[in-house]
Amino acid sequence: MDPGRATLWSAVLETAVASPFALLFFINAITGGIGGWGGSIPGWAGVLAFAAAADGIFRLAAVISTQAPIGSMFLVLLDLRLKSGGPRHDPGDEIRAIGDELEVVSPVPKVWWDRAGGVKYEGDSYVLAGSDRENRNYVYRFQRGGQGFPILDPESEKARNRSSELSYAFAPLWGFLPADLQKSLEFYGRYRPRPYVILSIGINLLVALSIVGPGLRDVSAGLFRIPGLIAIACSFALLIESALRLLRLIKNGEVTGSVLGFLVKPIYLRAIRERPIPPSPTF
């Protein structure tokens, strides 16, 4: 099986199934149900359809641009996986030290080594001489020499490898996080805040509009319910927040989190066990 092709077709199917329901629900929310558009679609189903369509479009764009496989956000969140009697995947590195040369084969790109320019392993310092990619692995070659490099500890690198993978797998969620946590995820080199902040703003706008539309329809019909009025007020607050976040991003390139980040932060704390630290040559 070609994983990239599998991602492509699954993303196409997900987008094709979810988009009609999301579109009908959006039209119903904006028009207030005029003409019966999307009137039979429950609110929860419409929001779920929006999320599924966004997930499918994101995966489709990702696989077309990078050719790398990426799973669905829903399966990642539910931690669903095929049960296998084989050994559990070990994200550790294969380290070979021969004379003055050191070679490391890793399942993830080591951006932090590129920044530092070398490593210290078993008491000896090694300068990064070059890196390459072989199949799905990343190969780093070092020559003895230099000083002041971070220590290459196999167990710490294993933790960083896991965090690197999860920083990539959960990327669609990170755009809701506070700016400092998003910046810290850049340490792994596989997360770029800007596109995911835009994605989070888009999701917030869709959710807010899906609530405001029916709420304003009820108000125009003379139905004043406290829960509905609270929902409308929260939706308007979310719309204002989204507009301000988008303005800051476009005007100053400023990365900002969402008030809904509190829903995502527990996932971050559980997923990223090896806490990222600001990039620097000496860590």
- Return the string of H and E elements: HHHEEHEEEHHHHHH
Mean pLDDT level: 81
What's the alpha carbon Rg, rounded to whole Å? 23 Å
- Structural class based on helices, strands and sheet pairing: alpha+beta
Overall geometry: elongated
Strands, count: 5
Beta-strand percent range: 5-15%
Please give the domain count. 3
Kindly report the spatial arrangement of strands forming the biggest sheet.
1-2-5-4-3
Could you tell me how far the N terminus lies from the C terminus, measured between alpha carbons in angstroms?
40 Å
Helix percentage range: 55-70%
The number of helical elements comes to 10
Low-confidence stretches: 278-283
Largest sheet: 5 strands, antiparallel
Short description:
The chain is about 55% helix and about 10% strand. It contains 10 helices and 5 strands, in the order αααββαβββαααααα.
Please characterize this protein's 3D structure.
The protein is an alpha+beta fold and 283 residues long. It folds into 3 domains: 81 residues, no CATH class; 59 residues, no CATH class; 130 residues, no CATH class. Strand 3 and strand 4 form a beta hairpin. The protein is elongated, with a radius of gyration of 23 Å.
